[in-house]
Amino acid sequence: MTHPATPVVPAVPAAAVASPSRRVLLGSAAAVGVAGVAGVAGVAGAGSAAASSVASSVVASDPGDRHISYREWSGRHLGPVRFTGQRDHVDPFDTTATSRSYDVATWVSPVVRPGFGLTELVASWNADTPGRSWVEVSVRGRSAGVATKEYVLGRWCRYDPAQGGGIHRTSVKGQGDTVATVYTDTLATRTGHVLDEWQLVVRLMRPTGTRQTPRLRSVGAMASALPDTERVPRSPNGRARGRVLDVPTFSQETHIGHFPQWDNGGEAWCSPTSTSMVLAYWGAGPRRDETAWVTEAMPDEVDPQVDFAARNVYDYTYDGGGNWPFNAAYAASRPRMRGFVTRLRSLTEAEEFIAAGIPLVTSVSFEKDELDGAGYGTNGHLMVVVGFTPDGDVVCNDPASHLVRDNAQVRVVYDREQFENVWVPHSGGIVYVIHPERHRLPRAPRREPNW
């Protein structure tokens, strides 16, 4: 189980910045604290509201001190780009340590000024990487009027080299300086620093002398500045009360011990298991011929799409399947699919997606006594919100399945207020939004749209 929110850490000299384990570092339930920020989250108070009034209030909602914005570019805004540079690169996970030459095309986003000083940023990209091609996504910005360096947020391709891909997809550690650092996939500023603007830089890498050209279909980023609060009030019921989406149930526990080279299944596979459930809901999971390598190794495997996903979201530096953008990018590598990572301010916003027929993968963490019915505690876990009861409680596909190796144990109902408080304060409300390209998203809030 992986990956709750990234804590902001004190500023230290660059030479002293360590690279602690993602699982240890991100295990803090303190989540998204920002020094000097006080007050409670700007979400609506407890109680219920009529569906029609809630729908309009979500769109017009005041973000209060829970600042989140999402910007994305696609289509004509991405090109054309020209291959005008060249770069040598050594894949650190290639046992031959061979330096390979690549033609490089660079796309740079417009400068984004979110209207608040951001403390965290998570990028998302949807790309095609034929043959041995790959992409590198970075961000730069300005803090107190001074330009930052570029921080690499991911080096990605659809397949690993053994499958014919270009590199072992990876985050990049050891990038911290006195302004910011990168915790696997999340840019986080140091205490006392914010970014007033940001800009993405995407490099498309094509093996020199080939026509294996990667194509960027969309790229964007979520920027946020969140309050240091341990609890949020229960959000009002929204438009999805009584609606439950028919998302298939897969248990991560049935995969314990599978493929140690990709983190050994079980609790380490909550993210690929959740992503697989959503892809199966859309009918976009891998075909039988694509998962043949799984069933050849494990003839009794009933959900090979989970093993397939675990391999294809795996971050070789993080050494796990919990990299948020890698899960979204994998989902978007399926035909006619799209995926991105953002933060939501409340379950009222989440209901907008359920009402639109879109399940959400959510990032949570909690002690065993904080979420009734779970039967376990976790310092970081992913599960799918698939609906809401008529009373507004949360219907989830929880791949931990009460720690029982049984897909029938995956569907569970969690108390709304309890769920909201193991999600919003702990990961900042992180979600993967995965849907077909032609399936419309709900209308985003007018102020600080976060999708």
UniProtKB/TrEMBL annotation:
PROSITE patterns: TAT
Highest taxon of the lineage: Bacteria
Name of one Pfam family that matches: Peptidase_C39_2
Domain Peptidase C39-like: 258-400
InterPro entries in alphabetical order: Peptidase_C39-like, Peptidase_C39_single_dom, TAT_signal
Protein name: Membrane protein
